[in-house]
Every structure is written in structure tokens, then in C-alpha cells.
Amino acid sequence: MRGATRAQWAACAAAVALAATACGGGSDSGGGSTAGVVSSSWGDPQNPLEPANTNEVQGGKVLDMLFRGLKRYDPKTGAADNMLAEKIETSDSQHFTVTLKDGWKFSNDEPVTAHSFVDAWNYAADVRNKQNNAPFFSDIVGYADVHPTSGEPKTKTMSGLVVKNDKTFTVALKSKFSTWPETLGYQAFSPLPKVFFTDHAAWLGKPVGNGPYTVDSYTRGTGMKLRTWDGYPGTDKAQNNGVDLKVYTDNNTAYTDLISGNLDLVDDIPAQQLKNVKDDLGDRYINQPALIIQTVVFPLYDPQWSKEGMEKVRRGLSMAINRDEITKQIFQETRTPAKDWTSPALGAKGGFSATLCGEACAFDPVAAKKMIQEAGGLPGGKVTLTSNVDTGSHREWMDAVCNSINNAIGEGPVCTVNPIGTFADFKNQLSAYKMSGPFRSGWQADYPLIQNFLEPLYYTGASSNYGKFDNKDFDKLVDEANQESDPAKAIATFQDAEKILAEQMPAIPLWYQNGSAGHSARLSDVALNQFSVPVYNQIKVG
Q1: Residues in the chain with pLDDT values less than 70
Q2: How many angstroms separate the CA atoms of 241 and 228, rounded?
Q3: Sign of the torsion formed by the C-alpha atoms of 467, 472, 473 and 479
Q4: How far apart are CA 134 and CA 148, in angstroms?
Q5: What is the pLDDT of residues 372-410, one digit of tens each?
Q6: How far is 473 from 481, CA to CA, in rounded Å?
Q7: Could you tell me the pTM of the whole model?
Q8: Helix (H) or strand (E) segment spanning residue 170
Q9: Which helix (H) or strand (E) holds 12?
Q10: What 3-state DSSP class applies to 130?
Q11: Rg (CA), the chain
């Protein structure tokens, strides 16, 4: 889920300061919100809210309220239902004709047309625009011409995108991709209005979309106010007057504000509160499976972690982690030890496997120590684990993981923790590819397909391949799976690719994460979608 710089975004949008304090606590009555408005905990996004430049959860929450694309994933089932698409037709899984529904417009009253999509996708793919999600468009014919590996692009548009009329455009892919239409609910494929291109700075200051909400104001470090768009043409209209997203750097503070009546919604229950949350909230506590996995990724761009034989060290570290104990003691019923690199929410038919990682994900301290020693030991005799610590109880589990590793190796505190204060700072360090040791990666699926758990994270040059894993055999199998028209055969091929991850261990699967949330008594119809994001438009206040 992520160019103009963050500084420009803040400068443009900081005109109106929100009522929230730096830690997000409010003092207003009724959950700290205006009448009919939901107040919810949040964290600053890493980048301005361009759909193709946002690939992290906090920015994604906002995009989900501001935009609607060709497809939208059903909040309960994850099914990719048509939203702006009237139909998407193909006879060969390679050439597609997209027909739009009538009546859609942006919040500035500009009609949504075929150009709104094609222009947005060409902008996203253009290497000069430095969009993080550009690789999502790499399947389209002509992508290499606008996004070369080096040098300037040959053209500004991809030849595989052709506008036929205001309601129709065609897409030619480089090869067969049978499930390509199912990916189009991802926010990177959102349409964009003309003002995005004609007055980019103004759009960054106050984004214009076609979803059920509009941006009222944003102050970095404090929060964002979104208000219901009365003219929204979709069927999923907002059932409230708006949403106030309040920035918290400590989710314990957010939970305290919820309990004290100064906040309506917390969508990340801190680990320290899990023992009390059922007593505190009763049926206002939500805990459900989600398309989320937590891993520890190795910086394979660093030779000390990628040299020959280091895969044994990486596997050994995985075997040194007592996932069962950590998930029970810290996370209780909200995490499940990982057995593969996907999510149980996919189901077996969707590609989840409880046996794929095998012994490499089983706690065996004796075997772990032996494997690490036989491979020459840890680089420099130590390992440093890095994560942001403002959300997700990350400090607690990192300490526990290091304790487990230290106990297994038995050579003192060889594993230490490097906490980073905010998620945005952590993501900036990841994007700079300067990590010297393993780092946390939490993956919330963009769409409910096994492909999305593998290709964006581990395919060479992929948008979220922050460890720079590079394996030709893995890439080849992913390509074959994408081209397979039989869903069962495609999933089996994806799992063959996943077996390479089990051998090479570019990332250690830690645990699958449930979606958890708590809300105030004045809210009703509160639910999380399969991606663990609140379905804000369905929430009622009062």
C-alpha cells in the first residue's frame, strides 16, 4: 500500500489543527468526537496518499475511505465483487476489456471515465514518478518502456492500455494471468481525477477521490478528519457523519482513551491489555482471523547475510524461536504460530498449508544451535532485530524472540533489539535498504490470493521485497502459476515456489495475526474486514 515528499504533504495539509493531542487523547464528550463522527486510533502514513505510492496499513485505511476501484473485496468473504466495473471480459486470460458502470464521479463532480483509470495506471508505472506500487503494473504490455531498469523511459504511456470510449478500455498483459481481475480491488488500481495531474500540489494538500468520504483536514503527528460525502454514488454509503483519525505513538494510550470515553475505536488492542479486554469491553471486543502474517526478514543486500551457507543460519534462527510460548504468553488468543508464508484465512483451497515450512518452523533449540554453528555462526557473532515500537506490541515480542534465540544458542545476549520510535521512520529505513540485521515485516494482504503473499514480498524487484531476495527458480514458478488457468494447478505451483522459501529462509514466518479491535458503547455495526481494517462506512453512531 504508498511522489511528492512527506514535507510537502504536511505543509499543504497543516492549515487546520485537529483537537487531538500529540498522543491522540481527546477531551470532548461522546468518545472525543463531533456528533455522528467516529473517532479512531491511527498512525501517520509514511507517504502522501497517492494510491500507487501507498503500501502500508495506515495510509491504506484512508485510501479505503477515499477511493473505489473496479473491484471491491467483500468485507466478510473477501470475494472480489464488481464496484465501478460493469464487466471485465477475456477469452484468453491475457487480453481484457473493461466496461465501466454509469453514474460514477469524483467528489469534485468530475465524471469517472476510462481515462481516469488509464491515466492513473500510466502515472503509477512511470519510473519518474517513483511510485512504490509500480510493480503491480508490470504485467501490462509496455511497462518496460515507461519503467526501465535504468535510464529514462521511452514513452509516457503503456501500449497495453487503450481507451476505446469514456466507458471502455482494454488491457493487454505480457502473458496469461488468470486471476488478474481479482487483483483490481487493490487500492493501487484506483482511478484519479484530472486535478491530480494538472495541480498535483493542490491534490496532495487535499486529496480528491471517488469514495464515500472526503478529507477535511490533516495535521501530521495529530490526526486527519474525514467527512461523509453526501453526493457519493455508490451503494455502500457512509452510515455516519465522518471519521476522525487520531495519531497515537503508543497504543496503550489509545486503549486508555477508549476505556475513559475519549475515543470510539481502537483497531489494535495492545498485548498488555489482552488479559483485561473481555472484562473491559465485553461484546464490544472483536477478535477474528485476518489475512495477516508477521515475519522477520533478512537484509540479503548485505553480503554477510546472503553469502553461501547463510541459509542454514537463517533456518537455524527460525528453529530457535519458541512461537508457541510467545504467542500464548504475549498475544494469548490473537496470534497463531506460523506454518507457512500465507494465512489460514485463505483456507486450504486458497493455498494455505500447515505443513509447508516443516521443521524449519518447529522450535528445536538443540538442532538450531547445531545448524548455526555448522554454518559458521552468526555474522560477527551477533544478530540485531529491528522494528518500530509504536504499535502492535512489537517491543514485547522482539524481546521474547531474542530471549528465545539467546537461550537456544547459549552464548549470552547475542541477539539484541533495535527499537525505532515510529512506523513512518521504520518504513523510511526499510526503503533506504540500510538494515544490517533482520527486521520485522507485517504483511496485510492487498487481496485474498496466495499470489499476494508471495510475489510482492519475494519476487525479484517486487514492491515490498525489502530484503531483496533474488531467486530465479522462485520467480519462474510464480510466473508459471500466474499463467495457469486452472486455479488448483496455479495454487500448487505457487506452493512449489513457497517451498523455495522454506529452503532459503529469506524471511522467518513468526505467526498469523488475528484482527482485533474494541469500540465504545455509542457505536454499533462495527466490523473488521478480512484485512483487519475497520469497515468505517458501515459504523453507526448513537
Answers
A1: 1-33, 392
A2: 5
A3: positive
A4: 11
A5: 999 999 999 999 999 998 876 899 999 999 999 999 999
A6: 12
A7: 0.78
A8: strand 168-172
A9: helix 6-13
A10: coil
A11: 23
